[in-house]
Amino acid sequence: MPDNSLLILPGDGIGPEVMAEVRKVIDWFGDKRGIALDVSEDLVGGAAYDAHGTPLTDATMAKAQEVDAVLLGAVGGPKYDELDFSVKPERGLLRLRKEMDLYANIRPAQCFDALADFSSLKREIVAGLDIVIVRELTSGIYFGEPRGIIDDNEGGRIGVNTQRYTTNEIRRVARSAFELAKRRGNKVCSMEKANVMESGILWREEVQWVHDNEYPEVELSHMYADAGAMQLCRNPKQFDVIVTDNLFGDLLSDAAAMLTGSLGMLPSASLGAPMANGRPKAMYEPVHGSAPDIAGQGKANPCACILSLAMALRYSFDLGDEATRLEKAVEKVLADGVRTADLMQAGERDPATTAQMGDAVIAALDASL
Ligand code: NAD
Ligand code: IPM
Ligand code: MN
Fold it and tell me: Is-annotated flag, keyword Membrane (predicted)?
């Protein structure tokens, strides 16, 4: 593999639309900053199913294992709703996460000042918000066995999923959270349901163990996940890093998205163990989905995907300064009042299109030179 290899998987719905804007940004860094990423592109999700009858081919999976980083747009859509569960678009994404062993999903929720009035909460509750949810991504109820839909032998059926966590699975994601906290506000809040689930009891004990034995200098608190959801809405700025399981992390990060103004703003990094070159195995993905309700209309906000590229520059390509440059460019565009429809209030008119938002980011990057 050449240096700085990036596999782009645009996927479905708005995935290819937002990825087209990311391509402009990648080209800009090549032309203006001499940063040559070796970019290749492949199919995932419904697009892969349409072409190959599977949401992820073995060849694409193998490629993802080889590159320095993967950037995924979004998968899924109504067209695929009736497909057999085993070939649904989402299975392609879950296979990537599982086989690459990307156990730590880093989901920052930062409220840019220019967007503080677009949150569904009051400005003073969200202005300046800067928290990170570390979601366990390769275990828990998403992957636990037994699972399936079985007959109950009385004419009915039983849907089964299993919440399951091992010591090692909890400890390694806890370490990711503590490491991150050390570079930020030095605070971790762990969320589970230890009051009703044995896996929650183990989660709490093991996170505490990692704290006491390896990170005693980081402040650790525990919260039941339902109370955590409430606190996230009541006073989100009390948090620095939240670490939680796969399902709770999925829900809490969508909730956190609305604190920042729009799901269209939230990037994420899914990280695994270090590879031979010392960089973590990694896939970058916006938190949002394929947004079928606006797909194909040029309405999608490309910022979440562009900011996911910024995370790739920082975590996979050792280009932290360039990542900051890109994040600042997005911030400037928002401060200048460029808005896709998701960032507008009722009654406001003439939203920027996906492409106009991408072009504005390029102009802000130019201005940064
Ligand atoms: P969604 O995130 O696609 O959309 C939720 C709402 O947010 C919609 O109203 C949508 O228009 C809006 N939205 C999302 N991203 C936006 C953006 N960038 N700009 C402007 N508005 C945006 O969630 P959903 O509707 O529950 O799911 C749709 C499909 O996406 C489903 O098939 C689901 O499984 C899939 N999905 C995929 C991913 C992923 O690929 N990582 C994540 C979540 C959902
Ligand atoms: C996400 C999505 C995925 C998840 C789906 C599409 C598999 O909601 O990335 O948040 O549930 O993890
Ligand atoms: Mn989700």
Answer: no
Cα separation, 361 vs 20, whole angstroms:
13
Cα dihedral 85→91→94→95 (10° resolution): 120
Distance (Å, whole) CA 363 – CA 337: 14
Annotated catalytic residue within 250, 281, 284, 315 = 250
The whole-angstrom separation of Cα 55 and Cα 89 is 5
Q: Which residue has the tokens 């399902």?
A: 247
Q: Is pLDDT larger for residue 257 or for residue 141?
A: 141
Tokens of 365: 């990057």
Instruction: Find all residues with CB under 8 Å of 25, minimum gap 6, and list them.
Output: 306, 309, 326, 358, 361, 362, 365
Here the tokens at position 208 are 């505490």
Peptide bond just before 292 cis, omega within 30 deg: no
Ligand having the closest approach to the CA of 97: 2
| Owner of token pair 């031979």 | 276
Q: Could you tell me the domains of the chain?
A: 1-102+269-369 (3.40.718.10), 130-259 (3.40.718.10)
What per-residue confidence (pLDDT) applies to 2?
A: 62
Active site residue 250: yes
CA-nearest of 175, 24, 4 to 103 is 175
- The backbone region for 290, taken as left when phi is positive above 0, alpha when psi lies in -120 to 50, beta otherwise, is alpha
User: Which ligand 1 atom sits closest to the C-alpha of 14?
Assistant: 18
What is the predicted pLDDT for the residue at 1? 57
Q: How does pLDDT run across 263-314, given as a tens digit for each residue?
A: 999 999 999 998 988 899 999 999 999 999 999 999 999 999 999 999 999 9
